[in-house]
Amino acid sequence: MAVAAPPAPRRMPRGGPRALLRATTLATALAVVPAACAQPIGPPAAGAGAPPPAGATVAASAAGEVDRVEVPPGLADPEAGPQGSGAGPSGAALGKYLAARTAQYHNDIQAAAENYAAALAADPDNPLLMRRSYYYLAAAGRFDLAVAVAQRAVAAIPGDDFAPLLLATDAMRQDRPDRAAALLGELEPRGLNGLLQPLMAAWAILGTGDLDAALAALEPARRLSSARRLADLHAALMALLAGAPERAAPLVDAYLEAGPPDNVRALELLAMLQVRLGRVAEARDLLAAYAAAGPTPPSVMRLADRLGREGASAAPDLVETPRDGFAEALHYSGLMVNQGQGSDTAIVLMRLALAVKPDFSRARLAIAETLRRMERFAAANAELSRMDTADDPSLDYIVQLYMAENLENLDRIDEALARYDSLAADHPDQVEPLVDKGDLLRRAERFEAAAAAYGAAIDRMSEDDGLLWPVLYRRGIAHERAGQWDRAEADFLRALELEPNQPEVLNYLGYSWLDRGEHIERAVEMVQEAVRQRPNDGYIVDSLGWGYYLLGRYEAAVTELERAVELRPQDWTINDHLGDAYWRVGRRTEARFQWERALSLEPDPDTVDVITRKLSEGLPPAEPITREVRR
């Protein structure tokens, strides 16, 4: 048997830093609804499949990256106007257009809006620039300017399917539902408009006082199999708002007969409907069933608590006017398209919802969440800072947590830590601020402080808490990296008691034992089980290969390490391990190639000399290893 010289460094766990502990945050509160049979409308995000306009393509470069962008007619040659008249747009239009596309590529919505608007100012009759200008102005929250451009676009672009939505939203904002209904009535229900147009039109018609016509306008949406329940929910809201609870009740029943609510906002609306219909007990049961099915966001827990204490007076009037319902339709549609490459469109729809309902905190929170996913953390915090959560402490908790995480992603570490501390103090029943604090400290390699933060979180958790084992696992990592192996080992073993055969813990503990030359056979068995569960995880496969290496099973080690390199070719540790295994089986040229490859992948500084020495001298003869097996 033999050991490697020297042992490979231990690794931090892979994956999202909060992948295991997102039970109470907006990831639940903003659960995405099932996709309807629709596609995003309007100008899509860069690279999202925009209909190619006539004209040339130009490469726009920014920050060393190149984006192939289309150039609208008339811009391909700034000196040549239509039909070579010489009266074409100035070069400033092309420059601003390319700057806008570059900003779009980098998810900088504000810069995209400014540059598209500037390009349009230089070429005011260009249809493509009109569409992109009003779309990104709306996404940036510059609604009045977006409406002004959209008014020109509807006259210049026959069949435009997005500008009328902006104009209808503006009409509802100005309490002109008849005008909104007329604009929406001219739209063809295609793409996402197959859902959005009936919903928006129905609420606009209800604003004119005609419930029957509003319900009839919803019928095209009810014919979409994926939207029938949504149409029933909105029909019930309309009937109740119009003073016809006898018509709302069977619609609520029809929704619930098809299953539980498919997102948190639908749950809140249904609970409110049940209370208004005098069904307080049913509302309580609905919330309790939702909570029993899985992680529950604070807003739902707060509503359930209020219903338990206050009864019929507890449920808020979430939809008090047709404008509110109009905003709800936009909000739901924004959640629906906020998948894949629909982020820009989702933000636009949420902005329209805010235009008619400026205090719609869920819409603003959804914008912030989308910006976070787009890695626009400063912009996300700007949205969060504009939210008024005084009347909803559960929402305030989410906002403050997200602002702290955004500060962390902006490398404003001290500010993030201060927010986590404040949240932990203000919410003694919550563990996530402490876990997030531990994660931040661990990534900053402040391992003892990280272990202390995790320990404070553990102190708040019960022994039967299903989230206890991941926190123990993280504290074990922090202890191990701080050189406190006995404490680390105890945490890993306790985590395995709570969650037997958990592959991440099996791999980390098994790899650590292998690295330390302890309990080799047991460690290999643990990693084998981890590989069985995660056969395509290159890091876990590497651990198995390294275990075989330490046992002197070099051919088996080569087999596993070659597969690990295929799965994770850019990891220097895996390449280094494969080089060692090649050397032991006599494949010396290939061994040196792998060590050179490891050096090219920027290994930890304290291993560079070791790998360099192996390149010049090879490995020393294998030495026997004493195998202690603890079971």
From TrEMBL:
<feature type="repeat" description="TPR">
    <location>
        <begin position="469"/>
        <end position="502"/>
    </location>
</feature>
<dbReference type="Pfam" id="PF13414">
    <property type="entry name" value="TPR_11"/>
</dbReference>
<dbReference type="Pfam" id="PF09976">
    <property type="entry name" value="TPR_21"/>
</dbReference>
<feature type="repeat" description="TPR">
    <location>
        <begin position="538"/>
        <end position="571"/>
    </location>
</feature>
<dbReference type="Pfam" id="PF13432">
    <property type="entry name" value="TPR_16"/>
</dbReference>
<feature type="repeat" description="TPR">
    <location>
        <begin position="572"/>
        <end position="605"/>
    </location>
</feature>
<keyword id="KW-0677">Repeat</keyword>
<protein>
    <submittedName>
        <fullName>Tetratricopeptide (TPR) repeat protein</fullName>
    </submittedName>
</protein>
<dbReference type="InterPro" id="IPR019734">
    <property type="entry name" value="TPR_rpt"/>
</dbReference>
<dbReference type="InterPro" id="IPR018704">
    <property type="entry name" value="SecYEG/CpoB_TPR"/>
</dbReference>
<keyword id="KW-0802">TPR repeat</keyword>
<keyword id="KW-0732">Signal</keyword>
<feature type="signal peptide">
    <location>
        <begin position="1"/>
        <end position="38"/>
    </location>
</feature>
<dbReference type="InterPro" id="IPR051012">
    <property type="entry name" value="CellSynth/LPSAsmb/PSIAsmb"/>
</dbReference>
<feature type="domain" description="Ancillary SecYEG translocon subunit/Cell division coordinator CpoB TPR">
    <location>
        <begin position="362"/>
        <end position="464"/>
    </location>
</feature>
<dbReference type="InterPro" id="IPR011990">
    <property type="entry name" value="TPR-like_helical_dom_sf"/>
</dbReference>
